Amino acid sequence: MKMQEFLQFLTQQLTHWRRQYKGLRRKGKLMRSPKSKSDRKQLLRTFLKNVILFLSKSNEKSARRKQEKALQSKAKSVKTKSSIYSVCLDWVHEQRSLVILAIAILSLTGVIGQKFYNQTQLQVGHSAPQTITAPYTAKIEDQKKTEAERKAVSRSSLQVLMLDARINEQINENLQQLLDDGNEIRAVAGAFPFFDSVVLPISTQRYLRSCNESEWKALLLAVENSKNQQKKGTGETTTSSRPSSIAAPNQERQPRTTPQKTEPVDFSQSTDFTQAVAELESYRVTTSEKNLSLLIAQISQTRKRYTEATTKLLQLETVTPEAVYEESFLLDLSDVEWEKTQMGIHQSAERILTQGIPQGLPKNILQDAVSLQLQSFVPESAQPLAKNLLLAVLKPNLQKDEEETRENAQKAAAGVPPVMVKVRRGEVIVKKGEQVTAWNVEVLEYYRLVRREVKWRGLLKLGGVIAIAIGVFVWVERHIDYELRQRDRLLVLLLTLSVPGLVTMGLPYTTWSALGLLLGSFYGATLGLTVVGLLLPILAITFDMSKAALLAGAGGAILGSYIAQRLRSREELALLGVAIALTQGSIYLIVKILIGQAFGSTWYIVLREAGFFALSGLGWSVVALGLSPYLEKVFDLVTPIRLAELANPNRPLLKRLATETPGTFQHTLFVATLAEAAAKELGCNVELVRAGTLYHDIGKMHDPLGFIENQMGGPNKHDTEIKDPWKSAEIIKKHVTEGLVMARKHLLPTAIQAFIPEHQGTMLIAYFHHQAQQMAQEDPSLTVDDADFRYDGPIPQSRETGIVMLADSCEAALRSLQASAKSVGEKRSLKDVSTEQALTMLNNILRAKWQDNQLIDSGLKREEMSLIAQIFVDVWQQFHHKRIAYPKFKASNTVRNS
Fold this sequence. Notes:
This protein is 67% helix and 3% strand. The chain is mostly helical. The radius of gyration is 56 Å and the shape is elongated.
């Protein structure tokens, strides 16, 4: 090919040169002038230049052809690859359920089984497969010894103690109770001193009040004898030697008895006795006999009260476990001393409790500390009593501050240098067949001589467990009313992965509450409880984490799954988040109490963790509420809350429907009422039925006057303008296609969009089909194809869309029946005229729909048709009930009465 092109080019050049040569010869310039040499050189140069140009062009052409061939081969390979890709994508689309199942098993196994990754081949306790030596000399930390030394230093570090305010409060309460008991007993004994201490010293008053009865009588006799002797000395006579004149006025006289011979007791040897007699004699001398009698009466009364107080004191000693008032110190103190004693006891207790009493403090040290404190605040005579009181109530009030002690221990342990062991080059680390120790593994890890591997056996076991769990999930899914799409299964997988994913990252406060709240809201309680119930045991056996934390999180998720779908507003979901938070915190606290970790010195740590779990439950619930609208949009979900929002008449499409097509809007409201009543009775999704019905005829806005309900009694354009049943049928059918366009433009959920085509199914547009048949009878050239007058479908694929189809078909019949009933006038009521007629008409309509195979895919049963017809008639009667017939007044009567 190249040679042919070259010869063709050469022939052209030779012809050109020949012409040039002939021309030169005709001009006589060739070989005749000195310039002929230059002409020949120029000719030769031109020839060579053309040859080189040809060769370069041929090279360019060959390169271009090579490039074209390469592009062609690349296009073929791309086409081949694209065909391979398309085949793969087609297979993936066909087997998408299996693909998602495989993705679920692999992803869950991969996230939950993270502990099976990067495991060493050599395990502690196994035999070494070969002898391994050190490649070079190095100093390696012996982590076991280092840890042991640090633990020893940590244990020996000083504990940080903190005052327990609860124990201090209890001690003060017990102390005050004892002091109140003392005040009560002293109140029974009366004031002390009971007489002027200048006249009678306190010691004498104490003796007179507390001496026994025989000593008191002897004292009175001695005072009487002293008075008689004094009278004899002054010349006075007495008629009786009995001390009746100085006895207490209230003292009862003893009945006379036969005198018994007893040995008299001589009290004159007692210093207190003689001192008391002398004091009373002195008081009589300085005052009068009458004042002495009054004083003796007062002493007798005080003695009586003292006896009662002593009896009460003895009773108190038998009741209290520690007899702090066993001695008479309490009653021997004066009122001033008792007040000082109480104040001093409180001050001493405050100082001792502020300094703190540690656990295990020897008793003698505590006694010495109490005695030392009382010396400064309590009178010396009251110190034994005060000491007994304090020792009876004081107890250790210092407890270990776990957090501070832990921090001190960590600081002390951090200060311990690591234990380094020198390993020389060529030194045997482990011999073949020997048992591998932890130290051997550390040395091998340092030299990077340990190969790591994935524990496939453990991963396969975990994968089997997860596959069984997914099988249970699939079984539950097939037994619930809600049919999951592939995107739904993907969302369930993503939400499920969030729980172990955060646990793997080391966060115990994971997304349990968000998981339960979102799954319950999107797919119902059964599916949410299934996921939580399957995930809980898998995490419990796989992750080394607190069981209280797992149970707390799962409890919040169960509550959210169970209640979420019953709620109808975001506000109620927010309150559910608070309930989830309280549930998680309470479960954590209860579990800790049951296992005994909520008592002792760590109780505040347990309370803090319970609070954190409550806050995490609330926080993830807030996150779930924030993500919910986005997930609904991305995954095309319909929840009760979203359906309620879509049914709001202020939505743009519904506002347009009400203003642009008022007749269609009224028709839509009545159809929605009929369909809601039937859906509620049949146990269908009432919210979905209402929202779907409100949007089922939005396509009529493309040509409002093309539908009779919007013509408001005006001329029908199909009869006056169009006059072509085929075109009219196209306009009618177009409200379905235009409705789908509007629904997609406004991003309505697929479940709502399904109502637009499915409420018409593949029904025949009977009115225009009949017109076309009449025209075909008149004009044989016209042919009527039923497909031109049938909607494109599909037929209803759910019970909800099937109910709306029936309600839409029956609404027009009920409206026409209402119009005919009004034309009857006042002869008969609406109920009498229309009930049976309406029921018969609706049963015929529903039977026709069933026979037309419009409901075979909807899930509705043949026996439910009569129930639906009855429900429609009942609702219609409620809307068009009988009204009171008002009396007619003549105009003259009206004017006269007014």
